[in-house]
Amino acid sequence: MLLTRSLRLLLIVPLVLVCRLGAGQTVDVGLGSYSLSLPSGAVGPQNSSGQNISPKVSSAFSLPIQTNDYWSSLIYPFRGDPHSNVLHAHPLNAKAVAAGLQIGYTPDHVFVANDYLYPFTHQLTVGVSGLTASRTVAQHYGDWTVTALWEDTATSMEATLGHGLPYVFFQVSGGNAVVTSSQTPQIWYNQDEVLGITVDGRHYGLFAPSGSTWSGTSTFTSSLKGRDFFSIALLPDTTPATLELFRKHAYAFVANSEVSWDYNEASAEVRTTYTYATVLMDSNATNVDETMTALYRHQWFNTAAPLTPYAYESPRGAMKLIEGNSFETRLAFSGVLPALPDRGDYNKDDLLGLVRSVAGETLPVGPTYENGKLMARFA
After folding, report:
1. DSSP of 95-158, one letter per residue?
2. Omega of the bond prior to 91 within 30 degrees of 0, cis?
3. How far apart are the C-alpha atoms of 202 and 360, rounded to whole Å?
4. CA 25, CA 156: separation in Å to the nearest integer?
5. Do 331 and 263 contact (CB within 8 A), yes or no?
6. Residue 197's pLDDT band (boundaries 50, 70, 90)?
7. What is the pTM of this model?
């Protein structure tokens, strides 16, 4: 998350310079600025067919448009899909479709054409009865969370997900909540507003408002007792203690996420603070206004936050779960050398051979994404 934000700054700098040189009217923001119009000769956003496009945002969207995050296919069409590509919000993966949000968890990797992959397979599709949205748009985003919006003639749904969140938070209108299993599930808990199911070996908890009920065997519906919210969580196991832990946090809906950091030059230490803003949607006495989050390895290895015994698998290693709306990491950072010092016990002939090998490669004509990775390797 910190790396993503740093990259965002690197991408903004050249854009600011272009705006200052090529545009007439600019707006200053701190030490930078942005233009109110495209520079002369510049081309705005286009799809792969060269057609001009606008960002897919709701009427309530009021944040800067950004395009370099795991959820970017929500805000700009990906290969013509009006909903989204796969959103890798580890430990969950998700994909927007016309009927709602597909949710899946892939704990095991595969090797395909020399690639190390965690392929997306959904276990659940979450929506509203009768929902068939023509597109899915961005409603809001935080530093590592995003809220997507589906709107049909009479129905709508919002879903909030994010890196580290084992939950997806939903708000619906115009119909009953509908959760469809991709295959016949095992129903191991169904009492009042809480449903526990296992689909293809993955465990999920469905949490509706107090006093609600869930009905169905493969497609589950709930009227939510006239209310408009529910959440779904990826569960590490099916024990009663685990289900109760996730239930009491299930109603602390994430409204925003923010990362901040401080660098102590004297100690060469970066302190990074990650904070959620939550809203308690159900005031049942046993519910708490704190969410839970699964930390990546580089986070849980460098935090003092108490870790629960629960963990998930991800392409970035094991993710360990904590309770609470905030955590801090501390990392040593002594700067980055512009070049490696020419001393040590390495073999200079071997190094020269490697450099010459790379220098002799050519950059093929190909998509921007693949060529960008190759150029980074050359650098």
Report:
1. EEETTEEEEE---S-EEETTEEE-----SEEEEETT---S-EEEEEE-SSEEEEEEE-SS-EEE
2. yes
3. 48
4. 39
5. no
6. very high
7. 0.83
